[in-house]
Amino acid sequence: MEEPDESFRSAVARFRASLTDKQRAEFQTCSLRHVQDTIQQLQNTLAAQRRQRNLQRMSKFVEGMKQLRQVVEVFLNVDSTVAFIWAPIKFLLLVCVLALISRAEIGDVLPGLTQYRSLLDKHPQIKVHLESYYCAVLEFHRKSLDVFSRPGWKTAFHSSWKTFKSRFGGTLTDLKRYRDLLSDEKITATIIEVRESRQSMEEFHQSMKGKLDEPSRNLQELHIGDRESEELRCREQLDKKRQFVLSKLDAPDYYSDLERASNEQRGTTSGERIFSHPTFQQWMDMSTVEHRSLYLHGIPGTGKTILVSRVVEKLKQLQATSQESGCSTTLVYFFFKHSQSDKRTLPALLLSILCQLVFQDDVLLDHVYRKCLSLDQHKVRSNAFLEDLAAEALKFQRFCFVVVDGLDECVGESQVSREQSQRDAVDWLESVLGQRDSQGTDSDDRNIRLLVSGQRNGILEERLSSSPNIQVELAGAHIRDIEVYAEAKSLMIQKKFSIGDEIRNDIIKRVCSAAQGMFLYAKVVLGNLLGQLTRGHFKRELKAENFQKGLDEAYERVVIHVLENPDQGERDAAKNILGLVICAERPLMWKEI
């Protein structure tokens, strides 16, 4: 028997990848009998509560799925995946009756597939449309599970249901199209049989086949055009809602901080070695529900922000790969900046989380839109509202990475102390991480991963003491990063000043020894050496009394280098820039300077 084509195998693989490990295990053994028993149990339960639903409406759908199972088992050689027909139905029966009632609509477009069995034996070309039909059913199930297997779907029920109905509209159109194509193929195959049995009907067959082929092609083009128009209309509506939400929230610019940090490490391997750290690998492992949090800490200047930017870029790659395979993963990040008033508070973090999630999750977008629509901007930006809405948004995700850098720079509003602001931020993050379902137990399906980075200040290490942690300046990978950086910069110094390998190796040794895990120290010292104008100035900086022993001394040598610049014009320009930076009421952009 022929194996299914590549598109069919991809559809099955995509559906399988979208399932959690728990769902894969439970779905594997599900059958029609399980669905029938579940329907009967549900009918009995609802009848006892006087809330009985007309689940008999699903009979056409169940019968259609039964016939589909019988046909695909025989002609598509996929007996190992037929459980995927029944398991989502049973799951959604137990979760949301309304989602299953919608399948009554699909029952209306299911053809009587068993009537095709004899034709499939003789005309294997019909198998192409049968494969497409089965793929459409799997896609419908996948979209259903994506909405109703979310941990917090009940919180956003109305938005979930509204979005679900719009999302499966395209699949319903596909099913209608495949039904019509199967019907056309059936007629064509029947005519071919007539021709084989009656040669005298050949001319009639050719004329009829041409007439049938043309409406079939026109019908297919019409369906494709209708679906594209519908998808475009839905996309335009979502874009309008998204723009409304973004203008209402007015979140700080979270992306520029990532871009700036990423630019600093572009072209180097700095930070990449953390990916091989066992603690980090456990945190990033999506197959487990343990290791949900990770605390990255270090002394000032260790390059934590650069490291975090590497992590975010890595997670973006993981997210893209997961989406290609059908697994829904979201990612949110934020860089606290104590010198910027719009990036140093808990509400700033919450606003950024919400804005990033509505870009990645159309179902959540409807929920946030409904919330924002009913409130003015002042109430929308209130702490209590943002904390609740952001918690709901994260709870609604099947798998979400949350990355927060510089939590020690969360200083809060003027009326709240720095210490209290950081405690409030940690409390909220931990409450989200440990959210419980309506029965008061942790949900196995909810999997939020939290990474927090910051300096040790007595508050963070106390509040995050139970989380796995990585001390950056002591990590072997980080020390090696400094060595690699020093080697690269010293080569540039060697080339500029024509020094020997002995002096170059001495520079590497002195810098790495004095750095004590501070990447910033290595950057400042080597940058100062490379920036010397002459070989004489360079040799002066290498003298023991001038070689910087710490970060403060390193900066002091940079200032001396600037103020002693023999070029009067450059010296005056440097003084003017320093004056502007010191006196400005806010941080200046480079283009302003």
TrEMBL record:
Superkingdom classification of source = Eukaryota
Domain NACHT, first and last residues per copy = 292-409
**Which positions, given as ranges, span the membrane?**
none
Q: Which InterPro entries match?
A: NACHT_NTPase, NPHP3-like_N, P-loop_NTPase
Under Gene3D superfamilies, the record lists: P-loop containing nucleotide triphosphate hydrolases
Which keywords belong to this entry?
A: Repeat
- Tell me what this protein is called: NACHT domain-containing protein
Task: List the source organism.
Answer: Lasiosphaeria miniovina
Organism classification, top ranks? Answer: Eukaryota, Fungi, Dikarya, Ascomycota, Pezizomycotina
